[in-house]
Amino acid sequence: MTVGLVIGGIALVLVIMLITMYNGLVKLRNNRENAFANIDVQLKQRFDLVPQLVSTVKGYATHERELLEKVTAARAAGMGAATVDEKVAADKALSGALSGLRVSLEAYPELKANQNFLQLQNELSDIENKLAATRRFFNSATKEFNNACEVFPSNIIAGMFGFRRAPMYEATESREQLNKAPEVKF
User: Fold this and answer.
1) Cis link prior to 153 (omega < 30° from 0)?
2) H or E element at residue 26
3) Can you tell me the distance from the alpha carbon of 107 to that of 113, in angstroms, rounded to the nearest whole number?
4) Which letter does DSSP use for residue 181 in this model?
5) Label partner for 103 (CA 20 to 30 A): which of 10, 68, 85, 143?
């Protein structure tokens, strides 16, 4: 009888551990999905702001049409993206197009003095900062999820229930570009 109680107690503890680890993995996966939803909100704000910025710039820089078309196309791709991977790719394309737009604007001092443009540029900078913060949060949530999927003994539970390592949100620029200090011109 005592052996049966001990075996039953061990089995109960194992079941409780299994349930706890499974629920922990689900919570971490949901936390990661929530973190990406926060990125989605910031991307939506960015996508809504870009047409206003492009319209303002068009009034001043009509010959920069190709660059503005790239920004508009990247925005449209972002709005049509359905999966996390598609949204990440669209975000990277839009980031690249916007950085090209910022470089191009250096040639237009009268545009930089325009109040509407300055306000839009400030809003875009604010959104970019919020995006950076939400990306960091997403990567933190992804790291926690990945750790839970890979450390013992939760990796056994993760494998049994199909939890897999998830990709991080990575920078669009190369490591060399990231390590290079930005040029400041007056």
Assistant:
1) yes
2) helix 2-60
3) 12
4) P
5) 85
